[in-house]
Design brief:
heterodimer, A: 3 domains, 42 helices, B: mainly alpha, Helix Hairpins, 6 helices, elongated
Chain lengths: 1034, 158
């Protein structure tokens, strides 16, 4: 079974390709898949009729108890034959229905085949949740099929309606499935039906399941989506809205009826809604002019009848229900396909303009006639046999059954009437209508409906052949009668036959009556017309009178129930209104307001936690030492001054003071690693921020918040701060358990390191560190992508670049300002001041001080260059030392990496971007990549060599002069971290340093923006121009 | 376990200052606010982790006097991530300045649009689906048969 379903999936995926290769003939090829499925199902017939089942179970999500459980029994077999057989025929029909060059045909073919597969899966699934999966799959695929003509608003809306209604039902059904499944202790449908659970919860669950079934099968009050869905291409209507999808609800009811049909809610819901739908649909069908809509309302009506029959809960009625289900699938899909042919060959489906088609296309008329006869219940046809069985079974029932029977007979009479209306409308020659021109017949086009219509007659005659198979399912429903009924072409003379004939006669009477009503209406219209003419009324009055007479719908009595669709639209719009209102109330779009909301919630949460946590066990001491007090004072002062500062640079430096203060606090607290890292990071942050701030206005600009708003901000800030301080005091006192730190110390010793903090980072909690470096890399990537407008992968700027000829950080007109000699070309001073004007390659590694070649002379600082040149390598060695020593002493990959990054930073500061390129002639991405490879490689090696990812190990390494080195895998991990950090720092430096330099130079050297940079420059230029004015104002 | 009151005050001031800056519109101030807030929370973790002590390095002092290493590990991670965030916010501020000439966070236009949205698709007033189908049918009736149809009919008559 799984193979059959998989075949559909593969075919669906191949379909677009096939259609583009073979055109619409591809449908013939694709039809082989459902035909194959039908053939496979047919081969199982004898076994299943004998009482056997085919089961296949694969575990899917064991934790949910969700299995790929499939089961083929009598009901599944019949449904599978219908779904696959009609599916195949519809695909064959599609090959003629669509134009050769129709747009979107490949996708359509794929979706249709996928739908056939989903439908098969639905009827074969033996797990409630799996059934739900297929159920929703058919919903989604039907959305795509109904909305095939996506450029038409009607099609889109119809598809949306169908999706909303059936998805709503589907969700209700999911809840029901979970309730029932939990109560039963299993989701396996066969087991639930064998041992149905009971109780109020189960009743609720079953009702929810019914909601799903009713919405799918378009019963009142969900019926409105089905006529709307007639916007779909006709083959889709024939398949989904006659044979397959709408039968899913009937199938579910039939599947669960043996277990739950005795529930009161079940009976009431199905009998009342089913009978109501039967009559409402049939009455509406009689008023339609569009043949397709007529059939759609007819389908609604028949689905109501089917629900009554299969949900009735007694064996013989269920037998009749399944028989009618088969008959309906055959005749209704045949009729839809006939309408498709009529539509294609005459260009209309309106029965008011169709005339003479029966003479022009006799073969088509016969096909339509056969199918309509089966629908009307003419003896010997399948529809007749099924309905008569139903009459027979209900005649033997109680009072309720007889009442239901009366309603059904009325419904069947109406059905016969609209069956005639259909055939008459499509094929009859009408006296007052000119013959409609019509294209010639096409046997290939008519083959599928012909087979289906003839199938109705064959099935009717040979019903007794499949009676054992249908009976195999019906026997699972309890029987009230001692003697079993059988499906057969002829049940003999009896009350049931009488009822059948009565229904037919009733149908004829309705047809004649409607004619008379029509005639009366026309007479009335004529009278109105004459009256209007004689009284000389306005022409508009004539039109209104004529229009009213033209439509028999006006004459027919209207039901005064609120339109289901109106209610539905009201619900949808109400929901939309509420959501827009909620968005309007909560989403102001202002970041401060959002943040404040979060913070206020945070305060409320903290207050709640503090109140619930009473009594507090607060044990406060003043300080850990007077140094702590002094540093705290510094921090507080720094924070307050940062807050008050109106200058960017001042604020940044003050916040740096806070950072250094906190680092000192760490040092005092006995956390050398933290102090070291914080000092380094703070320094790097300062440099980086200043690099960016040189481009921004010196003062904070823009809208200054009003005093009131600032007070609110201050109040929120003080509240959060106070609560945090309080929380600090309370939480420390609330500690109950013994700290786990003891264990970490022991584990650290085991891992071969003395620095517990570092060992924890690279060994015990290395997973966290991997996440952390991932964050670093992501942030660095974000920075580069924001700063490098074109591409980041450009290598570092090197001296060999042609553009390195232009001086870096040049002050415009500096040469002119300098001594007159400098301005004279060719003078020795000028040459010495600006040796950069030479061939780039030749200058490489020429001087010891590289800035000689790269910086604008007025920007050079000899002292800085010399010092940097002297200490650069020393700093690098220090960084490696920190990395290596980190295992036992303060240090580690992070600290080492940042120290190395600072070494490059000072090279950049001393010599500009080309100096940086020369100092680190590798791409930052390369370093980050190698670092990530090393860390993940170490982690994975632990899994390969040892038992788990990140498992550690150690090796002894004999180094000649130095002695033996014990190498831990965690050290290797730390090397990876080191490389990542160096790469990230380089990346940040190149973005905020080199790239911004380049952008500045580009702006000063090219007054008019180049085309490539147009968007950024165009906006940046006015900003740059306005920046000085702001500074002056300040 | 006793807590240093001084540290608690530092936490309070840093968090309060951080929050006030965070509520501003200038991205530079937001960035400084995030930095202050980060420092404040780090000190909070430190303060809650216990009293000051010796460095948590085995062999450098008596075990009992060692400071708790776990908060330190958490803070170390937090320091590095704060740096990453600072760098990213800086890039945002710079880009915002490049594009708009300032580094201010504007109100979210999308949110405003949602709030000002009127009822969607006024024509979707629940007109009966039948109506449209009927109109389609009517349109089909009124369309004149194409030349291809004529040719097909002609063939059949012949």
């Amino acid at each position: 079974m799984i193979a059959v379903l998989a075949a559909h999936g593969v075919a669906a995926l191949l379909a677009p390709w096939l259609v583009s290769a073979l055109g619409r003939r591809a449908f013939l090829l694709l039809a082989l898949v459902p035909f194959g499925a039908a053939a496979w199902a047919a081969t199982q017939t004898s076994g299943v009729t004998g009482g056997g089942t085919v089961e296949q179970v694969h575990s899917w999500v064991p934790t949910l108890g969700l299995d790929l459980a499939f089961r083929l029994d009598a009901l599944s077999l019949l449904m599978a034959l219908v779904a696959a057989g009609v599916g195949g025929l519809v695909l064959v029909y599609c090959s003629r229905y669509f134009g050769a060059g129709e747009a979107g045909l490949g996708r359509f073919a794929g979706v249709l085949v996928a739908f056939a597969g989903a439908m098969l899966g639905l009827v074969l699934a033996d797990d409630l949740l799996l059934l739900y999966v297929f159920w929703e799959l058919t919903t989604v695929l039907s959305f795509l099929l109904v909305g095939h003509a996506a450029d038409r608003q009607g099609a889109r809306r119809a598809a949306m309606d169908a999706l909303m209604v059936t998805t709503f039902g589907g969700l209700a059904m999911l809840v029901g499935a979970v309730i029932v499944g939990q109560a039963a202790g299993t989701y396996r449908i066969s087991e639930i039906v064998a041992n149905p659970p009971g109780g109020t919860a189960v009743s609720v669950g079953v009702v929810l399941l019914l909601v799903g079934a009713l919405s799918k099968s378009a019963l009142v009050p969900f019926h409105f989506w089905l006529p709307g869905a007639m916007a779909a291409p006709t083959p889709v209507s024939a398949y989904l809205h006659a044979a397959a999808m709408v039968k899913a609800g009937v199938y579910l009811v039939a599947r669960l009826a043996p277990a739950f049909a005795d529930l009161a809610a079940w009976r009431i819901a199905l009998l009342v809604l089913g009978c109501g739908t039967l009559l409402l649909g049939a009455a509406r069908a009689l008023r339609q002019h569009d043949l397709k809509l007529l059939l759609a309302y007819g389908t609604v009506s028949q689905l109501g009848l089917l629900m009554v029959l299969v949900g009735h809960g007694s064996r013989d009625v269920a037998l009749a229900g399944i028989g009618l289900l088969l008959a309906h699938a055959l005749y209704k899909s045949a009729l839809f396909l006939v309408v498709g042919i009529v539509d294609r060959s005459t260009g209309t489906r309106d029965l008011r303009v169709l005339s003479g088609l029966g003479r022009a296309r006799p073969r088509l008329a016969v096909i339509g006639g056969l199918a309509a006869a089966s629908m009307a219940g003419v003896p010997l046809f399948a529809g007749f046999a099924a309905k008569e069985t139903a009459f027979d079974a209900l005649l033997h029932g109680d009072g309720v059954d007889v009442a239901v029977l009366v309603l059904i007979v009325v419904g069947v009479a109406l059905t016969a009437a609209y069956a005639w209306r259909f055939w008459w409308g499509a094929f009859a020659t009408k006296a007052d209508v000119p013959d409609r021109r019509c294209a010639g017949g096409d046997l290939g086009f008519e083959a599928a409906p012909a087979l289906l219509a003839a199938g109705g007659l064959v099935l009717g005659l040979a019903f007794s052949a499949i009676d054992p198979l249908v009976g195999r399912y019906a026997d699972t429903v309890p029987s009230a009668l001692p003697e079993k009924l059988h499906l057969a072409a002829w049940h003999g003379f009896g009350p049931a036959l009488g009822l059948s004939l009565l229904a037919l006669a009733g149908g004829a009477a309705i047809v004649l009556g409607q004619r008379r009503i029509l005639a009366a209406a026309r007479a009335a219209g004529d009278a109105a017309l004459t009256g209007a003419v004689t009284t000389g009324a306005a022409a508009t009055g004539v039109a209104v009178g004529g229009g009213g007479a033209g439509g028999p719908a006006v004459a027919a009595p209207r039901l005064r129930i609120p339109e289901a669709r109106t209610v539905y639209v009201g619900l949808v719009r109400g929901t939309e209104r509420v959501s827009v209102g909620a968005a309007r109330a909560t989403q102001s779009g202002s970041l401060p307001v959002y943040l404040m909301t979060i913070l206020v919630v945070l305060c409320a949460a903290m207050i709640t936690a503090l109140i619930l946590g009473r009594p507090w066990d607060v044990d406060v001491r003043l300080w850990d030492g007077p140094q702590q007090g002094a540093i705290a004072l510094l921090i507080v002062a720094g924070a307050i001054l940062t807050l008050r500062s109106r200058r960017r640079l001042k604020a940044v430096v003050l916040s740096g003071v806070v950072g250094y203060g906190v680092a000192t606090l760490f040092a005092l607290h006995g956390a050398p690693d933290l102090a070291l890292t914080q000092f380094l990071v703070e320094t790097l942050t300062l440099v980086v921020v200043v690099l960016v701030l040189r481009r921004l206005p010196t003062h904070f600009t823009g809208t200054v918040s009003g005093l009131g708003r600032r007070r609110v901000h201050l109040a929120v800030g003080i509240a959060v701060g106070t609560l945090m301080a309080l929380l600090t005091l309370v939480v420390a006192g609330a500690r109950e358990a013994v700290p786990v730190s003891e264990l970490f110390a022991a584990a650290s010793a085991l891992a071969g390191g003395n620095n517990i903090v570092n060992v924890t980072l690279v060994d015990l909690r290395a997973w966290d560190t991997m996440g952390e470096i991932a964050v670093l890399v992501v942030a660095a990537t974000g920075v580069t992508s924001l700063i490098f407008l074109r591409r980041r992968s450009r290598g570092a700027p090197r001296l060999s670049d042609p553009s390195s000829d232009s001086p870096v950080w040049a002050i415009p007109h500096a040469e002119a300002l300098a001594s007159p000699a400098a301005a004279t070309p060719g003078s020795p001073l000028a040459v010495r001041q600006h040796p950069a004007r030479g061939a780039g390659v030749a200058r490489r590694a020429q001087g010891w001080l590289v800035a000689e070649n790269t910086l604008a002379p007025e920007r050079r600082s000899l002292l800085l260059e010399v010092v940097v040149r002297l200490i650069f390598h020393t700093i690098l060695v220090l960084s490696v030392y920190l990395l290596w020593a980190g295992h036992d002493l303060a240090g580690g990959g992070f600290a080492g990496g940042i120290v190395a990054g600072l070494a490059f930073t000072v090279r950049y500061l001393a010599g500009g971007r080309y100096e940086l390129g020369e100092a680190a002639p590798v791409g930052a991405g390369l370093l980050i990549g190698i670092g990530l490879v090393v860390t993940t490689g170490t982690a994975l090696a632990g899994a390969v060599v040892g038992d788990a990812v990140l498992q550690g190990g150690s090796w002894y390494l004999d180094i000649p002069v130095l002695g033996t080195l014990k190498l831990y895998s965690s050290t290797l991990f730390d090397v990876g971290v080191y490389l990542v950090v160096v790469g990230v720092v380089l990346d940040v430096l190149r973005s905020f340093g080199s790239e911004i330099d380049r952008q500045v130079d580009e702006e000063t050297h090219t007054p008019r923006p180049t085309v490539e940079r147009a968007p950024a420059s165009a906006t940046a230029a006015p900003a740059a121009a306005s920046a000085p004015t702001r500074e002056e104002r300040a | 376990m006793s807590v240093s009151a001084v540290l608690a005050v530092v936490v309070g001031v840093l968090v309060a200052g951080g929050v006030v800056l965070l509520l501003e519109r200038s991205l530079t101030r937001v960035l400084l606010g995030a930095a202050l807030l980060g420092n404040g929370i780090n000190v909070m973790i430190l303060a809650m982790g216990g009293a000051a002590g010796e460095a948590p390095i085995i062999g450098q002092g008596p075990k009992d006097e060692m400071a708790d290493p776990i908060p330190q590990v958490m803070i170390l991670t937090s320091i590095v991530i704060t740096f990453a965030m600072t760098a990213f916010l800086l890039a945002l501020a710079y880009r915002s300045w490049q594009l708009q000439g300032n580094d201010e966070v504007q109100d979210d236009v999308e949110d405003r649009l949602v709030a000002n949205r009127r009822e969607s698709e006024p024509e979707d007033t629940g007109a009966d689906a039948d109506l449209e189908a009927a109109q389609d049918a009517q349109a089909a009736v009124e369309e004149t048969p194409s030349k291809a149809d004529d040719a097909a009919i002609g063939r059949e008559h012949a």
